[in-house]
Amino acid sequence: MTEANGQWRLRRRPQGMVQESDFEYTEEPVPVPQEGQVLVRNCYLAFEPAMRGWLDDVPSYLPPVGIGEVMRASTLGQVLESRHPDFAPGEVVTGMLGWQRFAVVGGDGGPPGLTKVPPEVPPTRALGALGTTGLTAYFGMLRVGEVREGDAVLVSGAAGATGSVAAQIARLRGAAKVVGIAGGPRKCAWLRERARLDAAIDYKSEPVGRRLREEFPGGVDLFFDNVGGPILDAALLAMAQNGRIVLCGGISTYNEKEPPPGPRNLMQVVIRRLTLRGFILLDFLGQARQAQAELRGWLDAGKLVCEEDIQEGFENTPRTFLRLFEGKNLGKQLLRIAELEAPGG
Amino acid sequence: MTEANGQWRLRRRPQGMVQESDFEYTEEPVPVPQEGQVLVRNCYLAFEPAMRGWLDDVPSYLPPVGIGEVMRASTLGQVLESRHPDFAPGEVVTGMLGWQRFAVVGGDGGPPGLTKVPPEVPPTRALGALGTTGLTAYFGMLRVGEVREGDAVLVSGAAGATGSVAAQIARLRGAAKVVGIAGGPRKCAWLRERARLDAAIDYKSEPVGRRLREEFPGGVDLFFDNVGGPILDAALLAMAQNGRIVLCGGISTYNEKEPPPGPRNLMQVVIRRLTLRGFILLDFLGQARQAQAELRGWLDAGKLVCEEDIQEGFENTPRTFLRLFEGKNLGKQLLRIAELEAPGG
What we know:
2 copies of one chain form a homodimer.
Chain A: E1 4-10, E2 23-29, E3 37-47, E4 75-82, E5 92-95, E6 102-106, E7 115-116, H1 132-144, E8 152-156, H2 161-172, E9 177-182, H3 185-193, E10 199-202, H4 208-215, E11 220-225, H5 229-236, E12 239-247, H6 268-271, E13 275-278, H7 288-300, E14 308-312, H8 317-325, E15 332-336
Parallel strand pairs in A: 8-9, 8-11, 9-10, 11-12, 12-13, 14-15
Antiparallel strand pairs in A: 1-2, 3-4, 3-6, 3-15, 4-5, 5-7
Helix pairs in contact in A: 1-2, 1-7
């Protein structure tokens, strides 16, 4: 193999908005698998807003990515060479292999941290609706938010990879009304027409507070929040008594130099007897298989639709990451960096 | 009866910090009870931070007090004259009779909204540890916070009427550690010595964040918050994974012209998988009798100690209300405006 292993490493911690120049491109030889190891060629990189949090040197649910380290990311790839009994060349796998063309995993005696993608699953779905973002939506809406038949449900960041699945799960579980908040007419049209939500609010052109009062005269029973900031503040004034808020993320705040002030309307949590719950997907991974089975059922039946925004070229890796914070992606943000080879090809 | 009915009415809505001049003193004749009504002489007025919220013309769990209306407040008094079969002269009662010397209640066919104080109960306790603040502490700590044996518990506003009871209930229910936050050495000494908490943090002279890290190396399992603002923000960084926060109130924010920004560390709710719950005592009143019985048992056994700060003189009514926001009261803030007469006296 004469190809080099291209990698994107963290050059410095972003100050405020993350920039392409916060990362640097490096190359090293393609690693050689030792006994118990597997060599994988990454074909798709997956991007999530939460990755922004991994760049800051603050305590979190995962350690920060170190300066000079390959950027952590979920990936979809293909086994090139295996010295582990459970994996064979050609198998399609997902893992947290990071922003690099090749990776060697395993060899420490434990499982090599790869998940096989079944042949009947469209591979990129394993990064989106069946991957971390789809599972986050699933557990957040069902286990944390405990959506119930008849609920009036609001989802922010509703055209994103997690929000779009969360909103549709609420609809599938019998919510009386599901409204999504997203930025721009294209995303809002998608929410109404493809995701079949009851309404969409374009926060870039509509007054969110007034639209929430119009759409939810009886208040919001369950708010699944991906964005925080002013939208969370507006939603606090639209909640029904005993309403629940699932705090899944706060993309509106991730690129601030320091955490911005929180919602002014926090006392509504008292006045309206609200429950706010935060969660991290890691805590639910033990139930992932059952969740993926249910998500696959919905996808195969056409009840759940998912979009993928697939950019091209490893050189565009940091650029593609920035699309999340520019609001450019509809659905799952992916980057193709190599072709998956056909089985036996 | 030649005495006039002195009253304190809301003159104007406070702009920012409530002032004595936001209220005005008026007099009218002592009302005469009609068929089904009860005439009560108020002897003690009770003061709670939540009353500040009733002065703003914003939607809340109770309608705002109208301009020109007698200020709403819990009171302890004595029946002077009764034309209702359930009440007799001399009986000691609590009710929401407001800032006035006399009130007539009932007559609309329903119960007159009075609760008799049993003779064996020290009467002012019916406004404090057995009244709204004690019940708020009880339900907030047990039903909302669901304190468990072994919990590491933090209470803010811990020397106040609600906080002091909440903290002691946590101790009585087997919390592994209970720490209170209060302002000034007198309150902190009381928390350690009389309320027998494990530690007290003086937010006026100590760095709260650092002290929380010292007192809770494993994190706070349950935070009962009465104050909001910077203390809530600091506590968010001290919570244990899966910690619970009971939002009981936010006295630090009540006198702002508009709601101040919320906590910068709100994303800790996600990262640490926290649950925040707000509540209002009204929702638990159906269980008040059982709660009062348990509180009385603790009080009678000396396991729960409660302070009352009793000021004197009806002319000092607005002034006494302001003491809450000046942090002057230790325990329940009361004002004596008339003597309770001895039974049969």
